[in-house]
């Protein structure tokens, strides 16, 4: 295979750098670190092409388990890294906690809706951000709809929280952290073996292309396994700095609410937005919200990665049916993520790594949603190949 001759796009790389400097100049040291972690997450997601929606589609339609195997590896490594810290409850003098949420009807319904939405939107919580930063105008519509869906769901939380649930359940707290980690690793290994039998990997997790050079590491094409390990380590860093694991979609709900206030919406009319945390977040700058800051960092990190890879080339002409799918997909993901207490990152990745049973329920409900979404894609002119 010939050596790549691609060169970076100086204007894009420079713009990403200037944007990053502008953000860092407005925040304190702790938030600057979180923003930097967002940058690294965006660069890793883009350069490893680490997606969730496409991975599930390839598993179900092409019997290619590569992407799902990378996810299982990522969650297993993160579970081991998280366990001693969550068991201690603090690190460097700061209290820390896992991504644990109630296990109930709202999680199942929300994850199912999210599964449909990620196939129509052609992205997920993290995929929306890194695809947007990488130059996809369609993902801007997905993001706007995502925010609207999350905000709408926040107004309905009284209803969803009134439905049956078993409360927050974390294996680490129920049976102890060493047995919890051992049990989760056993389940993950079993799932890996099942996936391998049904869908053999067509891409080795740690095989590098023949033309790998130092330049190649800047331009992308990273193995999925490298992406999985880096995301695990970066999630650990987020836990240490933020006091909680990596999350994404709370920021979308907040952005939707801030936009609604500009249109005349009154937060006092919503019980959800009268909570101390929500009310404070709504009244402060976006840069005061750690999740928002990291999400912005992911977008800029992906923009930097696209510039380094010379792949920033937005396609402005998008078929109307594809735009409609983006709108519906974003709304479903936003609504689903809010009532399910997270998305593929906050609920599935960080939730299971925190030993929360709601993370396992999330993926069990999201996969049937993906099946439904895949069946709907051709009606919107979206290819399943």
Rg (C-alpha, Å): 20 Å
Structural class by sheet pairing and helices: mainly alpha
Number of strands: 4
Strand order of the largest sheet: 1-2
Could you spell the SSE succession in H and E letters? Answer: HHHHEEEHHHHEHHHHHHHHHH
If you average the pLDDT, what whole number results?
94
Distance N terminus to C terminus? Answer: 25 Å
Task: Tell me the β content.
Answer: under 5%
How many domains, as an integer? 1
Largest sheet: 2 strands, antiparallel
Helix fraction bin: 55-70%
Q: How many DSSP helices?
A: 18
Low-confidence stretches: none
**What is the 3D form?**
globular
In words, what does this structure look like?
The chain is globular. The two termini are 25 Å apart. Strand 1 and strand 2 form a beta hairpin. It has 385 residues and is mainly α. The protein has one domain. The strands form two sheets. The protein has a two-stranded antiparallel ribbon. Strands 3-4 form a two-stranded antiparallel ribbon. Helix 2 packs across helix 15, helix 4 packs parallel to helix 12 and helix 7 packs across helix 13. The chain is built from 18 helices and four strands.
In a few lines, what is going on in this structure?
This protein has 385 residues and is mainly α. The chain has 18 helices and four strands.
From the structure above, extract its key features.
68% helix; mainly alpha; 385 residues; 4 strands; two-stranded antiparallel sheet; two-stranded antiparallel ribbon
């Amino acid at each position: 295979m010939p050596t790549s001759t691609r060169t970076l796009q100086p204007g894009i790389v420079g713009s990403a750098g200037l944007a990053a400097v502008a953000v860092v100049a407005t925040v304190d040291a702790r938030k600057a670190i979180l923003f930097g972690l967002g940058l690294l997450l965006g660069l890793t997601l883009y350069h490893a092409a680490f997606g969730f929606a496409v991975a599930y589609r390839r598993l179900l339609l092409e019997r290619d388990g590569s992407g799902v195997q990378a996810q299982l590896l990522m969650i297993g490594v993160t579970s081991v890294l998280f366990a001693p810290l969550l068991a201690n409850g603090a690190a460097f003098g700061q209290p820390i906690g896992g991504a644990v949420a109630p296990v109930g009807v709202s999680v199942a319904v929300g994850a199912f809706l999210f599964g449909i939405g990620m196939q129509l939107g052609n992205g997920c919580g993290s995929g929306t951000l890194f695809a947007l930063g990488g130059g996809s105008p369609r993902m801007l519509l997905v993001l706007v709809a995502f925010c609207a869906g999350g905000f709408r769901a926040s107004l309905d939380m009284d209803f969803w929280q009134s439905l049956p649930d078993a409360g927050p359940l974390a294996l680490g707290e129920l049976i102890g952290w060493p047995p919890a980690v051992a049990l989760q690793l056993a389940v993950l290994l079993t799932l890996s073996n099942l996936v391998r039998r049904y869908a053999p990997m067509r891409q080795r997790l740690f095989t590098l292309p023949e033309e790998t050079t130092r330049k190649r590491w800047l331009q992308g094409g990273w193995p999925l396994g490298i992406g999985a390990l880096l995301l695990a380590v970066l999630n650990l860093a987020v836990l240490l700095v933020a006091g909680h694991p990596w999350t994404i979609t709370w920021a979308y709900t907040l952005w939707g609410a801030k936009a609604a206030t500009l249109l005349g919406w009154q937060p006092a009319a919503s019980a959800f937005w009268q909570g101390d945390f929500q009310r404070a977040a709504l009244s402060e700058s976006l840069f005061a919200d750690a999740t928002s800051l990291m999400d912005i960092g992911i977008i800029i990190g992906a923009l930097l990665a696209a510039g380094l890879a010379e792949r920033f080339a937005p396609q402005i002409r998008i078929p109307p049916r594809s735009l409609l799918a983006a709108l519906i997909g974003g709304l479903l993901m936003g609504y689903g993520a809010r009532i399910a207490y997270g998305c593929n990152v906050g609920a599935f990745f960080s939730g299971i790594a925190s030993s929360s049973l709601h993370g396992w329920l999330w993926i069990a409900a999201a996969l049937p949603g993906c099946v439904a979404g895949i069946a709907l894609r051709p009606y919107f002119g979206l290819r399943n190949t």
